[in-house]
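Researcher: Go.
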Amino acid sequence: MTEPTQPAPQEPATPSRRDRLRPLELIGFSAVLAVFAALVVLLVLRDPATGLPNFAMAAIAAGIAFIAAVLTVALLGLGGKPSKEDLEARKDLFSPDGERDGEGDGDGASEDDGDDRAGGGGRWH
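Model: Structure:
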């Protein structure tokens, strides 16, 4: 058996300032939406007897709006098309079994060399 080869040492990638501040931009955007929701609740929900705004309901609305905005922005970010730099970086990653993606021993078979009949296989056929 041969020992697995070690990958060539790579210089650590240093993200740009814009890339490092990107999460803060998304959190800031969510905070702005939360403040907007709180202001709407403060203006709409007033105590009928005193006419004072309901700060508890505004805080609850702000919290819900903040969490919803963070989740929405995160899911939209995950669904985006990866850039060229991301695709290049992913080429250098190893798969969990230690082989490079797309490379193997050349026989075209996977590690799961079980019953190859249609329908999966296993002992119940």
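Model: The radius of gyration is 26 Å.
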